[in-house]
Design a protein that fits this description.
This protein is α/β, with parallel strands linked by helices and 372 residues long. The protein is built from 14 helices and 16 strands. It folds into three domains: 96 residues, 3-Layer(aba) Sandwich (Oxidized Rhodanese, domain 1); 70 residues, TusA-like domain (Translation Initiation Factor IF3, 2-Layer Sandwich), CATH 3.30.110; 153 residues, 3-Layer(aba) Sandwich (Hypothetical Protein Ychn, Chain: A). It has a five-stranded parallel sheet with strand order 1-5-4-2-3. Strands 15-14-13-12-16 form a five-stranded parallel sheet, sandwiched between helices. About 9% of the residues have low confidence.
Length: 372
């Protein structure tokens, strides 16, 4: 019986594959992807391995890579044993980056890309999200210039570049337009993790549990308890901003917050009389939410939505969709659903069911937890 094996390929071979007909698996951490990701790739961080491994399709060849190629060799061997057709990128993304930075498609030396982004019509978190999305698939050292008219962008872009490792070349504000020039830079996370100069930062967020040292991460966790329109908008604006920084975001919806996740149309499910009464009294979906103050029988929420539209601010529904597109984890509290008579079939797509352990688990790796 022949041994199941995988094949190592070079960066040159990797660059020529048809990405539409294969499955790309990126084993690096999410904050590395924000500045050097491949859009078609599935992110399965090696630190969380083997989570997500069983979900990979078997009908297409699988190409795996990590930063330098060592972790991906182990994963490639495991996948090959499970019957996958597997290819490992020798040298990892590091070798592929060297190749793409040196040469263009015609073989000539590459000229650093410079791209302009017009974000003047966007409101928070739109400009930051657009910057992150644009940089994601660009080669290292590419330069983008972005114009925005929202005052908060002046502060946001400084923090964003600091936290993602990109370089802010210039930042000006003139005649109501804020202009930022940014150079894409890859972060050397290996050196950051092993550098003695970073030990104080590590100690500051480390603790012990049952004698074991634990390390807090930079994830963000939200408990969305309120079902008010204004509070929900704020929650999703912050969540989208955190996701644009490459952070892992978990939004845990409980009690009145569950109404945000309900489908707008009635769904036929079996309920008792109390559950039916609850369903009739509660708002069904995000478009039925009222304001926490000055709701005025629904007039207040309509006014707020009208003002947001006139000023080019994303609607709540657009913010929810953006959060889902950028990997925000949306969790509905199973216990609260049982209490309020809400069934899984009544929730919008992409919602995960969880309990207190799910929330605590997310909170323990977060440096920010908010109760909204």
């Amino acid at each position: 019986m022949s041994e199941t094996v995988y094949k190592n390929i070079s960066a040159e071979e990797f660059a020529k594959i048809d990405r539409k007909n294969v499955t790309l698996v990126d084993l690096r951490e999410p904050d590395e992807l924000i500045v050097s990701g491949i859009g078609e790739a599935i992110n399965l961080p090696f630190s969380q391995f083997p989570k997500g491994l069983d979900e990979l399709p078997k009908d297409k060849p699988v190409y795996v890579y990590c930063r330098e190629g060592n972790f991906s060799e182990e994963v490639a061997e495991i996948l090959a044993d499970r019957g996958y057709e597997v290819y490992n990128l020798s040298g990892g993304y590091q070798e592929y980056r060297k190749l793409t930075e040196k040469r263009t498609d015609d073989g000539n030396e590459q000229i650093t890309q410079e791209i302009y982004i017009d974000a003047k019509a966007l409101r928070c978190p739109g400009p930051i999200v657009k910057v992150a999305d644009t940089l994601r698939d660009l080669p290292n050292d590419s330069i983008i210039t972005v114009d925005a008219t929202e005052d908060a962008f002046y502060s946001d872009i400084k923090v964003w570049t600091q936290r993602t490792g990109n370089e802010l070349l210039s930042l000006t504000a003139q005649n109501g337009v804020i202009t930022a020039k940014i150079r894409k830079k890859l972060r050397d996370l290996k050196n950051e993790e092993t550098s003695g100069g970073n030990s104080n930062a590590v100690d500051a967020v480390a603790g012990t549990l049952n004698g074991q040292r634990i390390q807090l991460g930079d994830d963000k966790t939200f408990i969305v308890f309120s079902g008010d329109l204004d509070k929900t908008i704020a929650a999703f604006i912050i969540a989208n901003g955190a996701a644009s920084l490459g952070r892992k975001v978990t939004m845990f919806f409980t009690f009145w917050g569950l109404n945000i996740l309900r489908k707008p149309n009635s769904v036929k499910v079996k309920k008792n009389i109390i559950e039916k009464m609850f369903g009739m009294m509660m708002p069904r979906g995000s478009k039925k939410l009222g304001l926490s103050r000055m709701n005025m029988a629904g007039m207040g929420s309509k006014m707020i939505r009208g003002i947001m539209k006139s000023k080019g601010i994303s609607s709540l529904e657009e913010l929810i969709e953006s959060a889902r597109e950028h990997g925000v984890r949306i969790v509905a509290c199973q216990m609260s659903m049982d209490v309020m008579g809400i069934r899984r079939e009544e929730l919008i797509d992409g919602v995960e069911l969880g309990g207190v352990a799910t929330f605590i688990g997310a909170g323990e790796t977060s440096d920010i937890s908010l109760f909204i």
